[in-house]
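Students often ask why we bother encoding 3D structure as a string. The short answer is that it lets us treat folding as translation between two languages. Here is a chain of 162 residues written in the first language.
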Amino acid sequence: MTNNTLIKELGADDMELLLSLRMEVLSNVFSQEKKELSDSEWDDIRKENEKYYREELEKGGHVACAIYVSGEPAGCGGVCLYREMPSPDNHSGKCAYLMNIYVRNTYRRQGIAKEICNYLIERAREEGAEKIYLESSDMAFELYRSLGFEDMNGYLKLNTVK
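And here it is in the second language, the structure alphabet:
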């Protein structure tokens, strides 16, 4: 970690910051889709995110963090903690899904995303996760590769919402 950065784990007491950062992430990742949504639909998404945070933070199913540079929020990230069926490559079945690794434009290309990832990976390990998954944008692919993530051949997705 650089001298002027601080990572803070966020909880229910930080709900406004959590939601603000989450909606900023969604606005950037889904900029085209957001244009097609009404203000009411966008607000519904925010409310569902608040419900998610309240439930998952309380039961330990999600770890969220923000990173500060010189006291200013520079980025954020989260990891969902869950269990899948145990298997030879994951005896406990404990897994994590790394998500919403986001750094504001001003702070990009300074190693901040890597700091966020390392923090969340360590937290997932502390919680017993034997596997950590993620989806990557083209921009972040090399970062995740440098952290040891590998392609999952044969992994498919079905979107059930049109």
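Translate back mentally: The mean pLDDT is 93. Keep this in mind for the problem set.
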